Amino acid sequence: MTKPSTNTQESDLNSVKFSLREKIRGYLHTTTKDKNKNYNDITMRSTLVLPSLILLFAFTATPLPVKGNAQPDPVLDIAGKQLRAGSKYYILPVTKGRGGGLTLAGRSNNKTCPLDVVQEQHSFKNGLPVTFSPVNPKKGVVRESTDLNIKFDAATSCAQSTVWKLDNFDAAFGQWVVTTGGVEGNPGPRTMRNWFKIEKFFGDYKLVYCPSVCNFCRGLCRDVGIFINGGVRRLALSDIPFKVVFKKV
């Protein structure tokens, strides 16, 4: 038998290679076209479907309820009940062992009236009860961050009232001291010194002097803290708030 020549073998091999290359090229061409076609189909469908989904969501989505005329949270006493205007409460410190409730004392031997708001020396003493009068007397609930008058429910030897007010700056103390002799009610520029607020503070409460009873007035806006002088713990404006709770009498 005659063996095929080398040239014939090379020719057959080249034919096979050429045929294989053509098949691969045709496959790749077809695959690319199919991919492009599929991509174009998906893009067109997305373009048609997306506006429909937007319209459907716009007409069917339920808006979230809006709480209109939201009021501040009510202030709660140690029993978890809302503070009520006109009811009697003790204002007690959160920190134990650093004095008791609040009471009245003269500023010095030469100035006994009006009486200042001070803290009891002993932690077991509740002090004198107070009442709260919100700026809106029709609202019986005492609420956070709301202007209110604070008044000791006690008789004194001084002619002035027991309504709290911020005194003029005391140069001797270098402090804005909380005293009494204020006016209850009548919100406005003339009674700015008589209004305080109760604000939430790390789960408890603090007293704040930041009156908002006069829109065009500019005044102080600071926490009420404790100023110690001569062993007397007086209430005065401070950068360190006096943390308090309220106990119903």
Class by SSE composition? alpha+beta
Assembly level:
single chain
Q: What's the shape?
A: elongated
Might you state the CATH topology name of the largest domain? Trefoil (Acidic Fibroblast Growth Factor, subunit A)
Fraction of residues in β-strands = 25-35%
Rg: 40 Å
Distance between the termini: 128 Å
Number of strands: 12
Query: Which spans have pLDDT < 50 for at least 5 consecutive residues?
Result: 48-67
Indicate the mean pLDDT: 83
Q: What is the element string, with H for helices and E for strands?
A: HEEEEEEEEEEEE
CATH architecture of the largest domain: Trefoil
CATH class of the largest domain: Mainly Beta
- Mind describing the biggest β-sheet? 8 strands, antiparallel
Instruction: Please tell me the total number of domains.
Output: 2
SS summary, helix count: 1
Bin the helical content: 10-25%
Pfam families: Kunitz_legume
Keywords: Membrane, Transmembrane, Transmembrane helix
InterPro entries: Kunitz_inhibitor_STI-like_sf, Prot_inh_Kunz-lg
GO molecular function: endopeptidase inhibitor activity
Walk me through this protein's architecture:
- The structure is a single chain.
- The chain has one helix spanning 6-60; strands at residues 89-93, 102-105, 116-119, 130-134, 148-152, 164-170, 175-180, 197-201, 204-209, 222-229, 232-238, 243-248.
- With 249 residues, it is α+β, with helices and mostly antiparallel strands.
- It has two domains: 7-62; 89-248, Trefoil (Acidic Fibroblast Growth Factor, subunit A) (Trefoil), CATH 2.80.10.
- The strands form three sheets. Strands 1, 2, 3, 8, 9, 10, 11 and 12 form an eight-stranded antiparallel β-sheet that branches.
- A hairpin with a 2-residue loop joins strand 10 and strand 11 (232-238).
